[in-house]
Specification:
Length: about 200
């Protein structure tokens, strides 16, 4: 079976959604992310924005083939916040996404079941308020060749729907390209079959 070469994420940050339970307010926000630095920045910004909140719980998942994820209960009882949020990321089959649920305590304890439900619901609402998009998993290559071979290369790139990310077109040409994973092996073999054209994976 061929491994899939697409993944689902969100196109842009969602609007803040609100879930209330027994006077506690739970604000859910989803962000598209590709690095831990971006995640840190979003969390810092939210803490400034919601400075009087009690908890800023979150979960994120990064990566397409090597997955990295983290959950954080931020002072709530263990596994009542981060894991229910992460469960929603999994149930919508998303990656490269951060979901934060900001809680303002309303004076009444919700208990473990109530907390799990509140964090899960706020995370679900934040995802539903987002536009989910499908992206391809891409492989990058660098191709070097004489200028005279360029038209041949361009034809192969077009036929395999490759994107040119940067190019130096001189006597010796250098192209940095990316192509969806499903087409990458075929493209690599086609280009490599020409003796005077070099291709290597980035």
């Amino acid at each position: 079976m061929e491994r899939k070469d697409t993944y689902k994420t969100i196109s842009k940050a969602s609007s803040e959604v609100l879930f209330k339970d027994k006077n506690s307010k739970f604000y859910g926000i989803a962000f598209p992310v590709t690095s831990e630095n971006t995640i840190k920045k979003y969390l810092e910004d939210l803490k400034k924005q919601h400075y009087s909140a009690r908890h800023w719980c979150y979960a994120y998942q990064l990566g397409t083939e090597q997955i990295k994820y983290r959950v954080n209960d931020d002072g709530e009882p263990s596994n009542t916040a981060g894991m229910p949020i992460y469960g929603q990321i999994q149930s919508f089959d998303l990656t490269n996404v951060l979901i934060v649920v900001v809680r303002y305590f309303g004076g009444v304890k919700l208990g473990v079941g109530g907390l799990i439900n509140a964090y899960r619901t706020a995370a679900k609402l934040a995802i539903e308020a987002s536009e989910i998009i499908e992206k391809t998993i891409d492989v990058s290559f660098i191709i070097t060749c004489d200028y005279k071979h360029l038209s041949r290369i361009m034809k192969i790139l077009n036929e395999n729907e490759a994107d040119i990310n940067s190019q130096k077109l001189e006597l010796n040409c250098e192209l940095k390209i990316s192509v969806r994973k499903g087409n990458s092996e075929k493209l690599f073999n086609l280009v490599q079959s020409f003796h005077d054209i070099n291709i290597k994976k980035l």
